[in-house]
Write a structure and sequence with these properties.
By secondary structure, the protein is α/β, with parallel strands linked by helices. Helices cover about 35% and strands about 15% of the residues. The chain has three domains: about 5-65, no CATH class; about 85-180, Periplasmic binding protein-like II (D-Maltodextrin-Binding Protein, domain 2), CATH 3.40.190; about 185-295, Aspartate Aminotransferase, domain 1 (Alpha-Beta Complex). About 25% of the residues are buried.
């Protein structure tokens, strides 16, 4: 009997890992897997061209497609579930915002029909009483399902603009789904070992480095004032070398949080590998100041 080959598309998720590895392959059914880290980037191909026999799909895209006669069948298999609250962010440089403050302001969204956007919009109106019609929505792409247009009054961002870029530039007051849309989480995961490598190089070179750690692009380096591991500064205390080290970083355009005997390494999640190396080169030079405390 000839095996049936099914084309499949899943993102890189714990629930789909076994399928992507081929753990469930059998003699009767073969799977031709499309390699894509983030499934949402292929949702249009799922509903517009019906390119896959089995595919991951967001619930909103499925419901809209089904309502327009796209021949899809929903399987009761949840690949991703999460709280949607962290996925709306605002520009804190303009001051704190409460949900009601979004009325009359510009909020960026990838598309009006994205599932995360739908959840967050629902929470804004139902939990916080926000009048969604008074929010100035800015979209960046068409809906996944063909023929679904932005509602009247929704603005389309100019070609080449991005959610994150407009938020940082002050052209948006808030944005939904920005971390996923810009690939910031993926970038942080990719650069995690790169940052750790820079930290290890500092520890190997500088006697004032006591320890270091990082998860993604969230890191910290602890300094010492002797080879016995005595912290450079006590808890809630300070040391002149730490102030001089901090001043050196700032004089060379690197702004971070220096506290007690430690300093943080928390660059913007959009940082490139070259920019990360440039930042650690400044830190490398600055640590010559704290090394003098150890070596005399």
């Amino acid at each position: 009997m000839t095996a049936v080959t099914l084309t499949a598309m899943f993102g890189d998720l714990p629930a789909s890992a076994a399928f992507k590895r081929g753990d469930f392959a059998g003699p009767d059914v073969a799977t031709q897997m499309t390699d894509v880290p983030e499934a949402h980037k292929l949702f249009k191909r799922v509903v517009r061209g019906l390119e896959f026999d089995v595919a991951e799909l967001s619930v909103m895209t499925y419901l809209i497609a089904k309502s327009r006669g796209v021949p899809l069948t929903l399987l009761p298999a949840v690949l991703l579930a999460r709280f949607q609250h962290p996925y709306i962010v605002y520009d804190a440089r303009k001051g704190a915002l409460q949900p009601k403050d979004l009325e009359g302001r510009r909020v960026g969204i990838r598309s009006i029909t994205v599932t995360t956007v739908t959840w967050v919009r629902g929470m804004l109106v139902n939990d916080f009483g926000v009048d969604l019609d008074r929010v100035n929505w800015v979209t960046f792409e068409d809906a996944h399902v063909a023929g679904v247009l932005d509602p009247p009054g929704v603005e389309r961002a100019s070609e080449g603009k991005t959610l994150e870029g407009m938020l940082i530039a002050g052209e948006l007051d808030a944005a939904i789904d920005v971390l996923l849309d810009e690939g910031l989480v993926d970038n942080a995961a990719r650069l995690e070992p790169v940052m750790r490598g820079h930290m290890e190089a500092l520890a190997a070179k500088h006697p004032s480095v006591r320890s270091h750690r990082n998860i993604g692009l969230f890191g910290m380096v602890d300094l010492q004032r002797d080879t016995a591991g005595t912290p450079m500064a006590p808890y809630n205390g300070s040391h002149p070398a730490m102030g001089a080290f901090n001043a050196y970083l700032r004089d060379n355009g690197l702004f971070t949080f220096v506290r007690w005997g430690s300093f943080m390494c928390n660059p913007p999640l959009c940082i490139t590998e070259d920019e990360l190396a440039e930042s650690f080169a400044i830190i490398d030079k600055g640590l010559e100041i704290t090394d003098k405390v150890v070596t005399g």
